Amino acid sequence: MKKSLWLVLILIFTVAGCSYQPQDDEVKRLAESMKKIQYEVNDFTAINDDLQEMKKRNDSIRPYFTEKAFYIFTNNNEVILPIKVAEKQKANIEVVSISLTYASQINEEFTYTYDLVLRLSYPEGKPSKEIKAQGQMDVTFEENRWKISRDWDGFPLMQEYNP
Fold this sequence. Notes:
Layout: H1 2-18, H2 24-39, H3 50-61, H4 67-75, H5 80-89, E1 92-106, E2 109-121, E3 129-142, E4 145-152, H6 158-161
Antiparallel strand pairs: 1-2, 2-3, 3-4
């Protein structure tokens, strides 16, 4: 009897766990928060040590990713590019907007496409510049919260680093 009860409980939790789908606003908050840490530079003149800034950003961004995705993200050094662009262009960088659209689900992973708008602001009077990018992000429920299991945006600032 106890085995039957346990099997029923496991089945219920398995079905309940499989049927939970993220709300679009949950994913948008997750994506916005992560992208702001990744891209925003509020004062390029305050960056003294690129590696220290990169470590600080990586530490801040870690909770948003699954372990595997974080490993890939950090191995690609994705947070250093905005820092280098801000220094080279003498510009601050802001995430203006991110809009997500649900695309698909495979097993427990939900895929969203997104449009991202970044703004480079030049304190020395040069007109600001907006950079638009399209990306794709997968999210999965892990450790009692939604986490990013894959993110790709095509490195939208690369052109600003190598004009």
